[in-house]
Amino acid sequence: MTATSAAAARVADAPGLGARVLPHPAREEIRVEAVLHALSDPMRLRVVRELAAAEGELTCSHIELPVSKSTSTHHFRVLRESGVVSQTYRGTAKMNGLRRDDLDTLFPGLLDAILAAANQQTDLHSED
Questions:
Q1: Cα gap 65→48, rounded to integer Å
Q2: What pTM value is reported for the model?
Q3: Sign of the CA dihedral 25, 1, 8, 22?
Q4: Which of 32, 88, 95, 116 is most buried as measured by Cβ atoms within 10 A of its Cβ?
Q5: Amino acid 110: pLDDT
């Protein structure tokens, strides 16, 4: 992908942060089928739920997944490349943020509906 998100562009322009910028789709390049694919995996949905609850950025290491490090890296990459999350480096930490504004603008109500359904499913299974 050639375009970067506004968040990645801001990081690239920020002084002292170096040139480590990850590619992100621009808002107009985000496709609903890529978003739905990214959110169809339970581990990736778990990441998105944690980011939504945090209402801010979290490091990759803050979000614990019961998978290997390489598999975790894969999940974060799928989320970034689909436009669901933004990833920026701050020193050695890779920060992750939910691209809620972009997703809500492109697909109004989609993210909230998916998060509500995931929460409802979790509540139903915790009652068993």
A1: 12
A2: 0.82
A3: positive
A4: 88
A5: 98
Q: Is the pLDDT of residue 124 over 90?
A: no
Output the average pLDDT for the chain.
87
**Buried-state track 78-104, b at ≥16 Cβ within 10 A, e below 16:** bbbbbbbbbbbbeeeebbbbbbbebbe
For 33-84, where are the E strands, in sequence order? 58-59
> Average pLDDT in the 93-114 region?
97
Are 27 and 102 spatial neighbours (Cβ–Cβ below 8 Å)?
yes
Identify which of 37, 62, 32, 33 has the alpha carbon closest to the alpha carbon of residue 47.
62
pLDDT band at 125 (very low <50, low <70, confident <90, very high): confident
Q: Are 17 and 90 in contact (CB under 8 A)?
A: yes
Per the document, the length of the chain is 128
Evaluate whether 46 touches 78 at the Cβ level (below 8 Å).
Answer: no
